[in-house]
Amino acid sequence: MGALIAIVSGFASGIFFRSLFYFGWELVAFLMFLVLLFGVAAFIKPRLLYSLCAIFFIFAALSMVRSSAADTPLPEKFATELRHRVSYDGVVVSDPDVRDVNQRIEVRVSNEYESTNLLVVAPRSQTVRVGDHVSVSGTLLVPEPFDTESGRVFRYDKYLERSGIRFILNFASIHVTQPAPWYSVPAALARAKHAFQDGLARTVPEPYASLGGGIVIGGKSGLGNELKDAFTRAGLIHIIVLSGHNVMVVAEWIMALLAFTKLSRRASLGAGAFAILIFVGIAGASATAIRAMCMALIALYARATGRTYAAGRALFFVIFLMLLWNPLYLVFDPGFGLSIAATAGLIWLAPLLETKLSFLKNAFWKDAVATTLAAQIFVLPLLLYNTGNLSIVSIPANLLTVPVVAIAMGLSAFAGFAGILFGTLAPLIGIVLSLPAYAANAYLIYIAQKAAELPFAAFMLPPFPFWLVLASYAALIYIVSSKRFSMTDQLRFARNASI
Predict the structure, then answer these.
(1) How many other CB atoms are there within 10 angstroms of residue 266's CB atom?
(2) pLDDT of 478 higher than 70
(3) Is the pLDDT of residue 406 over 90?
(4) pLDDT for 404 beyond 80
(5) What are 92's strand-pairing partners?
(6) pLDDT number for residue 498
(7) What angle do CA 212, 221, 346 make, to 5 degrees?
(8) CA 91 to CA 117: how far, in whole Å?
């Protein structure tokens, strides 16, 4: 475990400093000199510390090289057309993000020599789908950083670049020139997502349908700014984004259904893994979704092979793979960091908190309180740094909703399928079958609204210094490292809690 920690921490440290500061190859050469120095020291006088330092610095140097390779300039041909009215042909590569007054569509375009991704800001009236061939026109701009309400600078350019988007096409119009071909897998997954959302909309009124869709496959579209603000103030916004809990619930459902068949255990686990891949594809492959998918796939592999699943090792392994794939995730994707922090809290802090909750005799509530507190404590420093939003009511609001979220997820999924089957031919049957989903989602909205309405429910704090973030996590690491827990405890908390 020590070597894995040295590898991941070294790799992440190199990416972190390379993301914030520009420097040449001299620092990489200096790090390699340190590797040689500690390597010689470990050879002369074998000590674990020397070996771990050598591993740390060599992976820090390698990550700087990887970050440099990812730091590519703007495509030259497109850069010459900045601030001009342009027209391109391209393909829609992700589901449109529909806002109150417009929609934002990621489109892959190309010219004679280069290709790039644009974020097309277009009116809501223009309907496009994933995989459609489109013609777009608008003013070509480069995304720029901006100041947030917390007084920090948000690197919007890097945030978009971590998804491959280098330009914005503002004041745009978009027209479909050719619908998505029938054999397009991304288009098929998007159609499945919209079919489910349409089924929910036929049987459950708004905003309960949008909340149900968010709980099952993630997304805040349709909730409206007022309701989204209520969930944010109440500290409940995480329940309407795709999480590791959603992913594992889907796998468990599939395996439970297959348990009644004659398939072998490995075959049923393989079906569960396939269901995870399809589910994440439908929901949209964000950094958080990919991390959750990787964690779930590792857990399923451990079950299939009979090997012990160490949730902590799996988390470090997934972090390394994702940063190797895309170094921009670390600094410029806030959701990635929050997801990692919440998972770490559930793996290492929740078992410790459970030992302090002996006065709670009910096992369910002891588990719920421990996991809620652990996740909230571990994400708090990073949340304050990124947003400055401190929700005083977050913990009680989460405790009131934890028992209902999984139930609402299952009922909303059932309501969506009921809407697909009966929404058009027998709408009354679909509505009756969806009443439990309506009730569960209405409860979640009620808790969010009432918690947000409480006096002093949330505060906007002044800029939270980064050194205080580091000090907070250093203290948390010291606390959780003071006591070891079994692999079983780590797996139970990582799998059952909503992250």
Answers:
(1) 12
(2) yes
(3) no
(4) yes
(5) 107
(6) 36
(7) 60
(8) 10
- Three-state DSSP at 429 gives helix
Domains in the chain: boundaries: 2-70, 76-181, 208-496
Q: Which residues pair with 285 in a beta bridge?
A: none
Q: What is the pLDDT of residue 336?
A: 83
Strands 133-141 and 85-92 turn out to be antiparallel
Indicate the average pLDDT of the chain: 82
For the chain, the straight-line distance linking the first and the last C-alpha, in angstroms and rounded, comes to 23
User: pLDDT tens digit string along 326-351?
Assistant: 999 888 888 888 888 888 888 888 88
3-state SS track over 48-83: HHHHHHHHHHHHHHHHHHHHHHHCCCCCHHHHCCCC
Residue 463 DSSP SS3: coil
CATH value of 76-181 in 3.30.70, 1.20.1530, 1.10.4030, 2.40.50: 2.40.50
Q: 204: part of which helix (H) or strand (E)?
A: none
Residue type (1 letter), 306: G
How far, in Å, CA of 320 to CA of 329, rounded?
A: 11
Which tokens sit at 129?
């789908």
Please determine, for residue 28, whether its predicted confidence score (pLDDT) is greater than 60: yes
Alpha helix segments (H runs only) across 235-362: 244-258, 265-283, 287-305, 311-325, 329-332, 334-344, 350-355
